[in-house]
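Hi P.,

Sorry for the delay on this. The queue was packed all week, but I finally got your sequence through. Input first:
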Amino acid sequence: MAANSKFDLCTQATALLGLGPVQSFDDGDKGAVAGRLYDTIVLALIESYPWNFAKVLSESLTRLSDAPASQWTYLYQLPNNLDGIVWALYTETTVDAAPFKHWERIGNTIATNETAVYIKYAAINEVAKMPKYFHLLAVTALAAAFAQPMKESAELADFYHKRAFGTPEQNGKGGLWAAATAADARGSPSTIQRDNPFIDCR
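Then the structure:
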């Protein structure tokens, strides 16, 4: 079944647990649990890997007039739709530009000595625009998160967590996560290796 909203993803997750649909995050105990967990689970998935579908390369960040209260020279405003992690910062937007590492995130700003800053960051797209391989991963991860509070079942939680992320020995990088990242990498074979170091950014 296609997923066009966060409620569709939650409903598919509850279906795996043998429960009814989630039509609202204010819809009883089940809806309240889904509402508390949805953004956390999906954002954690977005941050877990430099997904091609979630990457945004912005125009130059806006430099603020305030000077940072630190060793840095300039402050730049982060985008409003940035969801969690900054993958990389650049001083130019050429294809082979290398990210720079001398910067610090302070709240919703970036402090640095660079006079021009471009950013690659994670933004959660509309559910309907997410690829199906990510839908499957998200639904399974949500089922793992929902199992204990909705069904009081540690067994179901463990089952769907392993299906989503593999065994403990795989350190969260197995299961459907591995399949999804492999599918995402095939969509951009010439750039995926350059993206790996971005996880090291602050």
